[in-house]
Amino acid sequence: MKRILVVEDDQAISNLIYLNLDLAGYESSQVFSSHEALQLLREQAFDLILLDVMLPDMDGFELLEKIRPYQIPVIFITAKNGLTDKVKGLKLGAEDYLVKPFEAMELLARIEVVLRRFSEHKNVIMFEDLEIDEEERIVRKDGSMIDLTLKEYELLLLLVRNRNKALSREKILESVWGYDYLGETRTVDIHIQKLRKKLHWSEHITTVYKFGYRLESNQ
Hints:
Largest sheet: 5 strands, parallel
Shape: elongated
Number of helices: 8
Strand content: 15-25%
Number of strands: 12
Order of helices and strands: EHEHEHEHEHEEEEHEHHEE
Strand order of the largest sheet: 2-1-3-4-5
Structural class: alpha/beta
Helix content: 40-55%
Radius of gyration: 19 Å
Distance between the termini: 25 Å
């Protein structure tokens, strides 16, 4: 399921967008300021950002420049319909620019186009010194390929997509090995140790005492 971050300070509009995304089968999160958006992006991974230009603490143009390293496509949603603003947004790297008010069907159509276009050219997740090619299932660290087993690869993806978030051993076991797996949580510990060694990530993959693990980002 594609995950979308809605950055919109008007709660009524944000709620309406959230409802339509939910009905269309997307998983979405709502924030109401630029600083909230930056904080959430440090903790979670998203496939698309819907970004209002006129935010209370930092305008969307400035925020777009700060979130560019995350390599997430952005659609601007704004009441500013001037050509200058539209050109500025697109030049800064936004994938599309939608002016309020708009119909839900138009928004969903534009989201679908951007996600499809982006997925055709961008199946790579960047995290710290790591590059994960989801299409080829290849992991590179500082340009060098890292040999991972299937479960190590799936565990890495889970950690990266939930960066800075504590995951219980049980949650990891269910997500990577499946609900019907008969093994013990010790399996998780063993694979975490292997990932730490292969990636030289002892400082990034931290142990949460009597709970599980967290992948910490410096970004």
